[in-house]
Every structure is written in C-alpha cells, then in structure tokens.
Design brief:
Oligomer: single chain
Distance between the termini: 24 Å
Number of strands: 7
Radius of gyration: 14 Å
Number of domains: 1
Largest sheet: 7 strands, mixed
Helix content: 25-40%
Shape: globular
Number of helices: 4
Strand order of the largest sheet: 1-2-3-4-5-7-6
CATH class: Alpha Beta
CATH superfamily: Gcn5-related N-acetyltransferase (GNAT)
Strand content: 25-35%
Length: 147
C-alpha cells in the first residue's frame, strides 16, 4: 500500500469511493442525505482541502482530507475495511501535522471506536452536523505524541 497526494483527474473515482463507504457505514443517513452531501464532498472536500489517497497497485482504496491539523474526512472502500488502511492514513496525517482533531457522527459507532482505539478522546459534542442537519457530532482530540 502506498499513500500519495490526490490528483485532480481522480475526483470522480474518489467521490464514488466516498459514496460506497458512506452507504456501507453511515446507515443512519437516508439516500437523500447522501446525495445532498455529494456536491459538498466533490467541491469542498476534494476540491479545496489537502487530500491524500491510499492505493494498492494504482487503485485507490481510501482517502483522507486535511485542513491544517484537522482530519476533515477519512474514508476506506468497504471491501478494504479492517485491513489497516485507516490506520496508515491516520499515521501519515500525524507525521505531517502532529496531533489531530476530528469530528465523528455520533451515530457511527465503528468510526468512534476506531478513533478511541487510536488514542483520541471526546472533548465536545454538537447537536447538528456541519450542514445543520440533525446528526450530532462528537469532537475528538488526538493524544498522540511523536516519539
């Protein structure tokens, strides 16, 4: 597996990967919610943030988006989950930015479990997500220290 900066030519492939991941893991979202988020992911996340791609043999397996030391997105292809890709991306982000912050949907217990196991702690909560929808967010802070 290899991590590299995203290319502008692969936006469509990364949006497809995001959609597959969200449908598999964000079961609290209706398909209309997923479709409403798609332009935000395509235009804001993939278009404006620092995006890193995890690939194997040239095929994207996941990606993350960073804004300074904030992990704004981390998505793994559902067929590649639980194979260490999320941890590789997270550790790459830490090597670049140091300790991170991340927001996690409260209704996504697997993501929360992942971040807690990786040394994050819950430091706050918001009733609404970043788009004002009633999907509470947990705000997490990384306790990781570069040794």
């Amino acid at each position: 597996m290899h991590i590299r900066l995203a290319r502008s030519t692969e936006t469509d492939a990364l949006v497809t990967l995001w959609r597959r991941s969200v449908v598999a893991t964000h079961t609290f979202l209706a398909m209309s919610d997923v479709e409403a988020l798609l332009p935000i992911v395509r235009d804001k996340v993939l278009g404006e943030l620092e995006v890193w791609v995890l690939e194997n043999g040239g095929t994207p397996m996941g990606f993350m988006a960073l804004y300074h030391a904030s992990l704004e997105a981390l998505f793994i292809d559902p067929e590649q989950r639980r194979r260490g890709g999320g941890r590789l991306l997270l550790n790459h982000a830490r090597s670049l930015k140091g300790p991170l912050t991340v927001d996690v949907n409260e209704q996504n217990p697997h993501a929360l479990q992942f971040y807690l196991a990786e040394g994050f702690e819950v430091v706050g909560r918001s009733e609404l997500d970043g788009t004002g929808r009633p999907f509470p967010l947990l705000h997490l802070r990384d306790s990781w220290q570069d040794s």
